[in-house]
Amino acid sequence: MSDEPIRVLLADDHPVYRDGLAVLLGSIPGVEVVGTAATGREAVERAAALQPDIVVMDVTMPDLDGIEATRRVVADSPHIGVLMLTMSEEDATLFAAMRAGARGYLLKGANQAEIVRAIQAVAHGEAIFGPTVARRVAEYFSAPAPAPDESMFPQLTPREREILSLIAAGRSNPQIASALFLSPKTVRNNVSNIFAKLHVADRTEAIVRARDAGLGR
Response regulatory domain location, by residue (predicted)? Predict the structure, then answer.
């Protein structure tokens, strides 16, 4: 096991919380706070420059939210582990963070021991969730999946319904192409057909229609 400290970058737009956490973590043996960031864009830039082992990232930040910042950090430097530390208990936020590449998700009510344990776990390549979040993840995946309803959007083909469900889940066209082993052009054509058949103007309107119908879980 390496004797090198775990190098941590803290990204949070609340200075009192951010500075307090920096002092707290700086007092922990084996942890070194190498920098802080007050916005999502600053977090991306500082992660690229400092190359920390871990970025502790808030979800709600100005300039660029923590989900998109996480996506960019992981895309630029896949070896950096991102631990979300947030007030948000929303399932949508949790799973968006996971899709963006976060390896851990803690609520801000976590105590010092939980935060340190999570940082150490993520630094060693593990995925970790606080007790409350872990229970929500378990409940989500243990719930029976709803049976496909072919009467939903009957004007769509089965493939178009499948793609609409992925759109409602927040997937981009390239992500849908990868998930369904389709070419980007095929996905674009299907998305255009979906918009035309549902009489929606854009992706946002399609997502609203699909989620109202229960798609995108």
Answer: 7-123
* CA separation for the pair 202, 204 (Å, rounded): 6
CATH superfamily of 6-141: Response regulator (3.40.50.2300)
Q: What whole-number distance in Å separates Cα of residue 127 and Cα of residue 125? A: 7
pLDDT tens string 50-70: 999 999 999 999 889 999 999
* 28-61 burial: b if 16+ Cβ within 10 Å, else e: beebebbbbbbbbbbbbebbeeeebbbbbbbbeb
The most distant pair of C-alpha atoms in the chain lies apart, rounded to whole Å, by 61
- Model-wide pTM > 0.90: no
Break the chain into its structural domains and give their ranges: 6-141, 158-212
Contacts of 38 (CB under 8 A, 6+ apart): 11, 12, 13, 15, 18, 61, 62
Report how far apart, in Å, the C-alpha atoms of 26 and of each of 13, 35, 179 are: 19, 11, 41
